[in-house]
Design a protein that fits this description.
The structure holds 2 protein chains of 2 kinds. Helix content of chain A is 46%, strand content 15%. Chain A is an alpha/beta fold. In chain A, the strands form 2 sheets. Chain A has a 5-stranded mixed beta sheet, sandwiched between helices. Chain A has a two-stranded antiparallel sheet with strand order 6-7. In chain A, helix 1 (6-13) crosses helix 2 (24-39). Chain A is globular. Chain A starts with a strand and ends in a 6-residue tail after the last strand. The relative contact order of chain A is 0.14. Chain B is built from 9 helices and 13 strands. Chain B has a 7-stranded antiparallel beta sheet, sandwiched between helices. A 4-stranded parallel beta sheet of chain B has the order 1-3-5-6. Chain B is globular, with a radius of gyration of 18 Å. Chain B starts with a strand and ends in an 8-residue tail after the last strand. The chains are: A alpha/beta, B alpha/beta.
Chain lengths: 184, 298
Amino acid sequence: MTRIDVGSVLRNSANLPYRNLVTRSTGAAVRQCIELELAALPADETATLDFSQIGMMDFSCADEIVAKLLLDPPQGAPARTGGGVIFHGITDHHLEAIEDVLHHHGLAMVVHFADGGARLVGAVNDDERSIWDVVYATGGTSTQALADRAGRDLAEVQQVLELLHSRRLVRQAETGYHPLGTLQ
Amino acid sequence: MTAVITVPPSLDDKSFEHVLEQLAAQPEDAKIIVDARHCTFGTPYGLTAMLTLGQTRAERATFLPPIDGNVSTYWSRAGFFRYAEELFDIQGSVPRVRSTDEGDKLLGITPIAAAADVHLVVERIAEQARHILTTRLKLEPKAQMGFTMALSETVQNIVDHAGRPGWVMAQAYQYRQRLAGRWVAEIVVCDPGMGFRRSLEMGNRRPITDRWGDGLALETALVQGVSRFPEAGRGQGLKGTRGYIGRRNGKLTIRSGTSRIGLIPTWDDSVPLQENMPYFPGAQLRVIIPGEIAGGTP
């Protein structure tokens, strides 16, 4: 799994001597640098975006960076890794702006918190969240095993898993569905 | 002929309207004298709006500073005269001070013209304001972060929408007229730019209605979260700021053109929308965040 230090991108690649992510133009500059790094990854590689070195993030930057990286890239933009993106180093200070923009766009993302736990943040329903929790808790397994573990009907679980996969919140493999990755 | 505009003894958001009423009768290129000699009090809104007024005059206005030395010194410390000298012909001497950042000012008057200025303001607030926001307003770190976000977003309005440079100032004080003297933090952002109505018109974002004007433009931007930019994520900054202010039981007012809209908390009796006010270009935005009281935010 590839780790991209957003603080380092801000200071070095985008050449902005700050630790706070504010203003839309800053957000766009940082996102464009991240997009180039993501485009260079192998197709099935999962990337971790590490926000540990970021002080605060305002709504405009959350929209410009987080939301736009999760949305499908516009025509002409670099292709993204199909392996998905995990967010790390997100604190309560970042969450307010992030949750706001995710709900606005109907998006969700996987966050690995400092305590080792992971959860979905953003616009997800109870069904999606509970099945995602099972995938994460098992480390990934067959659809049947996930349905058994969840105590749910196989067809229903399959439907939710396909949705989670289409939203790049789980990985699909021959053996079934898996978490996007573990933090390294 | 030169017109004399008398500044009321207390220069704040309400009394600044009296300045604008006097100004309404004068063409933009008329020579005016702004007489603040008998002014004894100026709020962040009053000071930044006065600088904005200076920007709007085609003919450089004359400014008579307050006679009271304490008042002039306070205005100097806030940074007022430093910038006023560029906009007005100041008659009479004004106190020179070495630093503009002291006391309970969270941020002295700061000009905003580009995105880098927003970064500067945010970095400065993060360094300077933490102590006051923690000890006086008793804001926990998450609420402090929200305050900085609100500052960042409101200041960005100048960069993204005004088309002309503007001003920001932030201050903490005990609100004696309301909230039983509780500590509050105030942000004021003023610019003489295109204003909300023209900004939405430029982006072809105005709703089709006969009611169109400054009031509806403010309503469209603040309540419906519409921005002049058609992208789905635009307008999030003001919407998010509104949410933060609502959760903190704070107050937000935006004046633009001939109208003022407000997110009014229960502790204030302002009207949510006021129209047909004297025209003043650009946008003037004021945020008040009350500090904590025992038992949490009221």
